[in-house]
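To whoever is on call:

I kicked off a structure prediction for a single chain this morning and the downstream step that reads the tokens threw a length-mismatch warning. I double-checked the sequence; it's 269 residues and nothing unusual in it as far as I can see. Pasting both halves so you can look.
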Amino acid sequence: MGERGESVRYAYWSDRRVRSIADDDGINIDPRWKTKISLFKIPLLQTGIELEREPRTLHRKEVAGRIERAIGDLAVEDFVTPPRVRYARGIGRVEFSHFVCEEQDRVVLGARSVASDGTRVALCLFGSRDNVAGFMGPNDPVASGWTSSSMWSITRWMEERCAASGLRHDDPQSISVEAMKIAFDQGSTRESRDASDQPWRRGYTFGDAPDAEWFAEIYSDVVLDKDRWGLDEPVDRILVGAPLWVRTPRAAARRYRDFRRGMNVKRYR
């Protein structure tokens, strides 16, 4: 999945995570070597002019392209393959919101996908506010609302990259459902649920990218037991992980601050 022909902006970019994956998988994303240019040399004389050009740092587009090519088919886009997915990518709407927990700089990105066999997938991607581009409004005051009492369990679980050792009182399915509630329902009120066509009414959200390309590292991948769960929104599979990047056509990202003007809401931050 490469960038589409139109101009794009990176709504989210995790340089630390990108470099970590490049180091682990032996992907070269370092600046290019210095180049030496000889303008002229006089025969039989050790004279001449040589210029050295400093190495050029790769643009994000080039770095992302190298990561995508190296990972290849390990990055799943059509979720018909059984768990566990290691990397995932897709195109679609991504919603950005604050992850309300003890750490004030955390965000959660929510995306949905439908596989070619009809499997409905929810992706819950936890990251850092520092990696969100300013045009998305990560520091804007936002509406408040419902928060999850599972925030501490989710935080501890994410610190261990969703390892089973991080689950003290939960099983993989139940904590994945709680992660999904945080990504898609945290901050909800009765009014926001009644206005599903106005996502900016949900608390703690600050923007979305309706037609974004996203790439993520996945830590947990579970298929839900249909007899166990009766969720408001039908979901068959939940993936939890961390985003590497989200990029969007230049004019497509929406900053919720622009839609909240005049709303009488309780403010968070």
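Update from on-call: the warning came from a stale cache, not from the record. Cleared it. Sanity check on the structure: The mean pLDDT is 87.
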